[in-house]
Amino acid sequence: RKHKKKILDFNLQPSSQVFDESGYLHNPSQIFTFLPITYGCDNFCSYCVVPYTTGPQRSKPLRTILKEIEKIIQDGYKEIILLGQNVNSYGLDFGLKNGFEFLLQAIDENFQSSSIWIRFLTSHPKDMRASIVDSIKNSSLITHYFHLPIQSGSDSILAAMNRGYTRDQYLGVIKYIRQTLPDSGIGTDIIVGFPGETEADFLDTLHLVQEVQFDQAFTYIYSPRSGTAADQLPDHLPLAEKKKRLQVLNQNLTDIHQKKLMTWVGKKVQIMIDQIEGLNASGRTTNNQRIFLPNSNFFLGQVITVLVVKSLKGKLYGELVFS
C-alpha cells in the first residue's frame, strides 16, 4: 500500500480535483446520455471499494443539473439517464432529506413541454422512499423503471454486507412500487457466495426472487476486494460452490423472465427507437423492456406504438401500429 499513488485530496476544493464534476457523457452515435448527479458514496457496503476510491458523496448543484439538461436537449438527445452510486441520496450532503424528489420535481416543472425521457441509475433500497415513487407517478417525463439491487435475500448476509435494510423492508418497497405504478419494471443485482453464506441463506435469496419476479437481474459471484471489510470475514466458500449457486439462481431468473415475456404478447405499447441495424430495429418501453421489429425507415429517437406479437428465445418482437 505504501507504493499506492494518491490521486485525490478530499480536503481540496472541487475545482482542484483531478476530475471534472460537471457536464455529461457526449456520444453523438447515441440518442441517450448519462448525466451524473452525484459523485462518491457514503454507504461502505462491506464488499465494495467505491467509497475508498471516489470519496464521500458530493451532489451536483440543482442549478447546474438544470442547465446541463437544457444543453442536452439542445444537443438533440432524446433520453437522459441520471447517474449516481446512489441517486436516492441526492442532496443529503446539502442537508436535504428529500433532495431526489425535489430534483425530479424541478426537472418535470422546467422541461415538461419537452419530449425527453428521464431514467435514473442506481437506487439504494435503504433510501428508496414512498415520496420518490409518488414523484415519479406525478411526472410526465420520468420513466417507470426501478433498479434496486437486493444483493441477497438473507437478513444475516445483508447485515454482513452492511446494506442497511432487511428483507422485509425491501419487499415493502417493492410492494409500494407495484401498488402505485403497476406497470413499473424492476431490476436488481444479486451476489452469491458471500463469506458465510449458508445453503439456507442462498435459499432465502431464491425465495425472494420468486416472490418479487424481477424483470431484469445482474448476478455475480462474490470476489474479494483487498482492503474491504468483507475480505476479512471468515468462511469464504469454494469457487465450485459459488458457481453452482450462480447457475441455480440464473436458471430461476431465466424461467421467471420467459414467463413474464409471454404476458407482453398482444399488448400495444410505446417504444423509443434506439437501435437500427439494416432491416431490423429495436427500442425500449418506458419500463425498460426492449422490443424488436422490422425497420420501417425509422430514425433514432423516434417514439412509435407497436403491437407485441411474439416472445422467442428471451426476446420480444412487435409490429408497427399505424395511427
Lay out the secondary structure:
Elements: E1 32-36, E2 38-39, H1 50-54, E3 58-59, H2 62-74, E4 79-83, H3 99-111, E5 117-121, H4 130-137, E6 145-147, H5 155-161, H6 167-180, E7 185-192, H7 199-212, E8 216-221, H8 239-262, E9 268-277, E10 280-284, E11 290-294, E12 303-312, E13 315-320
Parallel strand pairs: 1-4, 4-5, 6-7, 7-8, 11-13
Antiparallel strand pairs: 2-3, 9-10, 9-12, 10-11, 12-13
Helix pairs in contact: 2-3, 3-4, 4-6, 7-8
What does this structure look like?
- The chain folds into two domains: 14-262, Alpha-Beta Horseshoe (pyruvate-formate lyase- activating enzyme); 268-320, OB fold (Dihydrolipoamide Acetyltransferase, E2P), CATH 2.40.50.
- It has helices at 50-54, 62-74, 99-111, 130-137, 155-161, 167-180, 199-212, 239-262; strands at residues 32-36, 38-39, 58-59, 79-83, 117-121, 145-147, 185-192, 216-221, 268-277, 280-284, 290-294, 303-312, 315-320.
- Helices cover 30% and strands 22% of the residues.
- Strands 9-10-11-13-12 form a five-stranded mixed β-barrel.
- With 323 residues, the chain is α/β, with parallel strands linked by helices.
- It is built from eight helices and 13 strands.
